[in-house]
Amino acid sequence: MKTTDHEQLTNPARVLHDHLRAIRQSASDKELARDVVARRFFLPADNEVRIRRVLAQLDDLFVDVTKMVESMTSADHAIFVRHFPMLRAGLARVTLATPSSTAFNFISDAALENLDLCASRISEDYREVQIASEELAELDDQIKDTFTYIKEGEFEPEFKEIALDLLGTLRKSLIDYQIRGIQGMKRAVEESIGKLLRIVSTQPDVPHKPLERLKTIIMNTEAVVARALTYGPYLVESVRLLLPPSAS
């Protein structure tokens, strides 16, 4: 195994396999391609730019997988990447306004089986990091709920600006994780702590409740990352100390 216990990563072939399989399973004549992709990646269905960006990021993963396969010893490289040209061409020509069953009909059983084989081979050399989709969805719901609470609340404009930016950073990291892995979530937690510290130090009159909600979301995100990476949540205790304890 090439990685040490601390050098864990997200297997890009596994990412591609799981997303393409889920997209194909969700495809139907009744739902447009944009709706299937948006739901899979927690995106608004009317934001075509972001949906296209996610499809482009999926295409980039084929390049990453190819490089990893080529670095392997004792592997028949051609076997693992033989379906890549067809899959990449299919992603490039997806029309978001067409029925998803038509848009994603290029995702074949043979291609998925080959990606699964490729992912298993990569796992022999690299330790994988995965977060359950249920945990990601729960975090996304918490972030969206708090975003609405702060946006619609009667708070100072400066507080709103920083708080909504903090929440946006965390939500973007959930989307990025699904493509690029967990390092972005770690960075997002660290950035969010910095933004929360800025609020605490510059706006002493902000009510405790919204600060507590922001702190809780940061702590929950860090806890998910810590479990996935099998290390102690080294930032959680720092977050706990940012604010005074809740009044009993």
Question: How does the SSE layout of this entry go?
Answer:
Blueprint: H1 12-26, H2 33-40, H3 48-71, H4 77-81, H5 84-92, H6 100-103, H7 109-123, H8 133-152, H9 157-180, H10 183-202, H11 208-229, H12 236-240
Helix pairs in contact: 1-3, 1-7, 3-5, 8-9, 8-11, 9-10, 10-11
Please give a handful of descriptors for the protein shown.
248 residues, 2 domains, de novo design (two linked rop proteins), single chain, 0% strand, mainly alpha, disordered N terminus
Give a concise summary.
By secondary structure, this protein is mainly alpha-helical. It is built from twelve helices and no strands.
Structural overview:
With about 250 residues, the chain is mostly helical. It folds into 2 domains: about 10-125; about 135-240, de novo design (two linked rop proteins) (Up-down Bundle), CATH 1.20.1440. The protein has helices at about 10-25, 35-40, 50-70, 75-80, 85-90, 100-105, 110-125, 135-150, 155-180, 185-200, 210-230, 235-240. Helix 1 packs across helix 3 (about 50-70), helix 8 (about 135-150) packs antiparallel against helix 9 and helix 10 (about 185-200) runs antiparallel to helix 11 (about 210-230).
